[in-house]
Design a protein that fits this description.
This protein is an alpha/beta fold and 298 residues long. The chain has two domains: 7-77 and 164-296, Rossmann fold (3-Layer(aba) Sandwich); 80-143, no CATH class. It has eleven helices and eight strands. Helix 2 (55-63) links the parallel strand 2 (45-48) and strand 3.
């Protein structure tokens, strides 16, 4: 197997099972938690290829203590997670200083409030900028890196502490190709893939502009990348998240890959929604090592 830097996150005496990630993350799959909890991953190597917030890895480890769970933190979420204590100190100070101005949630900030915010931020360092910016900007602006001080959305209550959130999980940070190649020789491996959905908006994916030249992360995820992912998985069992707007079924059928599927309605607003799809592929090809786990979910 190729070189892959693996960091084991220290264990915790008791690992709680959380309903969401500690820091808001678009597409964290919390609506699939009840399904994931029904799957027995114990004594298997579960590789979370597109790890995002680590919520899938957390859910698997919290409910399957004997599973080896590998989380590909290609978004750098763990670095943000380690800044939560400093971010909470900043939040508390902002609440204290802004209180006399009587701010209201979702109202535009006054010039006085903006000045207080800027002065407070200048006195702090080592906090999660993306989270802090989301307190005063629309989420879409934060995603695009266009954060500004426009609206008040600062949480009044302390940021919850999740010290055991990823306890015992193995963290890697690499291109999805390298991660799959490293583990696809194991007989008891199961890949969990939640890639950016092809033919959909991918503003939150990746950090580098040119993955092929930098050998780092993509800024977009193409149909070619998707096909390459499927081919690299080979005949290993894998769960693949997708949506009705993607063409996953077409790709799998063109590649002559068998699959089982669950569809789930997701709501992203008062009048907006979409159908999210979970595929399970190669359920029969390694039946001695990995039974068809989908039967427990359906």
């Amino acid at each position: 197997m190729g070189e892959l830097k693996i960091e084991v996150i220290p264990p915790y005496p008791i690992m709680r099972d959380y309903a969401h990630a500690p820091i808001r993350f678009i597409g964290q799959k919390r609506n699939w938690k009840s399904y994931l909890k029904k799957v027995d991953f114990n004594n298997r190597v579960a590789v979370d290829v597109f790890g995002g917030s680590g919520f899938i890895s957390h859910t698997i480890k919290a409910n399957n203590p004997s599973a080896r769970v590998v989380w590909n933190d290609f978004d750098g979420y763990y670095d943000r997670f380690k800044l939560l204590d400093a971010t909470e100190r900043l939040r508390a100070e902002l609440v204290r200083r802004l209180a006399p101005t009587k701010p209201k949630i979702k109202e535009k900030l006054t010039d006085e409030q903006k000045a207080i915010i800027d002065a407070t931020l200048s006195e702090f360092e080592g906090y999660d900028q993306e989270l802090v910016f989301s307190w005063f900007s629309h989420q879409l602006a934060v995603m695009r890196g266009e954060a500004s001080r426009k609206y008040y959305n600062l949480r009044e209550s302390p940021i919850p502490k999740f010290p055991d959130y990823l306890a015992g999980v193995e963290r890697v940070k690499d291109d999805f190709r390298e991660v799959i190649k490293h583990f696809n020789g194991l007989s008891n491996v199961v890949f969990i893939c939640d890639p950016p959905y092809i033919f959909t908006h991918q503003a939150t994916y990746g950090k580098k502009a040119d993955a092929k030249e930098s050998k780092d992360f993509h800024s977009s995820f193409s149909l070619g990348d998707y096909v390459e992912m499927i081919k690299l998985i080979g005949d290993n069992p894998a769960y693949i998240f997708s949506s009705e707007k993607s063409e996953t079924k077409v790709v799998l059928e063109l590649l002559n890959i068998s699959y089982q599927v669950i569809e789930k309605d997701n709501c992203i607003g008062s009048d907006r929604g979409y159908v999210e799809i979970l595929f399970f592929i190669n359920s029969a090809k390694k039946s001695r090592e990995i039974p068809s786990l989908f039967g427990e979910i359906l």
